Amino acid sequence: MEFKAYKMDGLGNDFVIIDRRKDDVSLTKEQIIKIGNRSNVGFDQIIFIEKKVDDVFPIKIYNSDGVEVGACGNGSRCVAYLISKENNQRFINLKADKTILEAEILNEKNVRIDMGLPKFDKAEEIPLKEGLNPRNVSIDFLEKEYGNGYCVNVGNPHIIYFVKDCEKVDIKKIGPKVENHHFFPERVNLTFAEVLDDFKNIKVNVWERGAGQTKACGTAACAAVVAGYINQLTEKNCKVHFKEGTLEIDFDMGGGPVYMTGPVSNIKEIRLKI
Fold this sequence. Notes:
By secondary structure, the protein is of the alpha+beta class. It has two domains: about 1-115 and about 265-274, Diaminopimelate Epimerase, Chain A, domain 1 (Roll), CATH 3.10.310; about 125-255, Roll (Diaminopimelate Epimerase, Chain A, domain 1), CATH 3.10.310.10. Helix content is about 20%, strand content about 40%. It has five helices and 17 strands. It has helices at about 30-35, 75-85, 140-145, 170-180, 220-230, and strands at about 1-10, 15-20, 45-50, 55-65, 70, 90-95, 100-105, 110-115, 150-155, 155-160, 190-195, 200-210, 210-215, 235-240, 245-250, 260-265, 270-274. The protein has a 17-stranded mixed sheet that branches. The longest helix is centred in the N-terminal third of the chain and has 15 residues, at about 75-85. The N and C termini lie close together (about 5 Å).
């Protein structure tokens, strides 16, 4: 089987996008893993665009380990941009899991998206082991050096640690242990965040469940700013810096959603063979 797909990225966070509105392409978990291998096509996430329902485009997202996830901020921005090019639409509505994501194309390759309401009050919202406080999570092998973590769900679960130098953290060693820790029934994304200056800039080092260390992660950026603002470490409007660029995150503590703005790449059409 051979079919058309698209390759895009947001700040190096890369995706294979398959449009199922016309062609009903179905892939097994093993096939997704094969395509996601870096010796093959390679991706952090593979995203399927489904048929539009009431002016909303449902999407399904899988990590490179073949497991479906509930959200992908950079990937959603890429999909919104791809769809917008069909008829020059400025506003695109996506649906990831049960959340409607409203995207706006601000200018050429710059996309703003509403990531919905973050969750951080209850263990079951993350999800987190029953009885634990999402705002103060102690993992024994990290506590001495990094203190306690802060959990936020922005469509998928995150734990954030604020450190003096995020690049010094050996996240390839720590990441798998935290991702699969028994505190997290659906595994977890891990972020080490470094507040740079004036409460308005953060640098991050991210480990994504099912994908490993990634060049960028939109939901991690959102989660870091939410955690930073609640803990009075950052402003509610903050720039999150990755190696290949910056995302701007806006969060209103008064019950509002998280907004993410940033660039996307060119659209590259590819052919996949299974």
